[in-house]
Prior knowledge:
There is one protein chain. This protein has 78 residues and is α+β, with helices and mostly antiparallel strands. It has one domain (6-71): 3-Layer(aba) Sandwich (His-Me finger endonuclease fold), CATH 3.40.1800. The chain is 31% helix and 10% strand. It has helices spanning 6-15, 58-71; strands at residues 35-38, 53-56. A two-stranded antiparallel ribbon has the order 1-2. It starts with 5 loop residues before the first helix and ends in a 7-residue tail after the last helix.
Amino acid sequence: MTYIPANLRHLVKERANFCCEYCQLPEQLSFFVHEVDHIIALKHGGTTDADNLAFACWRCNRYKMDSQFKTGTPMFKG
């Protein structure tokens, strides 16, 4: 897991209005806390900056990871 500075995490959360940027589920309605996710994984050339980070619920983040694992390519593109 890559370290993402607290101020950058907060910026991404606020930008998303504390909702998953993929499915729009508000974090307060989720059983699990949302995560700051790399849209394009570092191993696929992505970077750790606001333009490549998304606020994601647990389910969307896992679905995206499973899709990348099976195909080797990002499911979502920024």
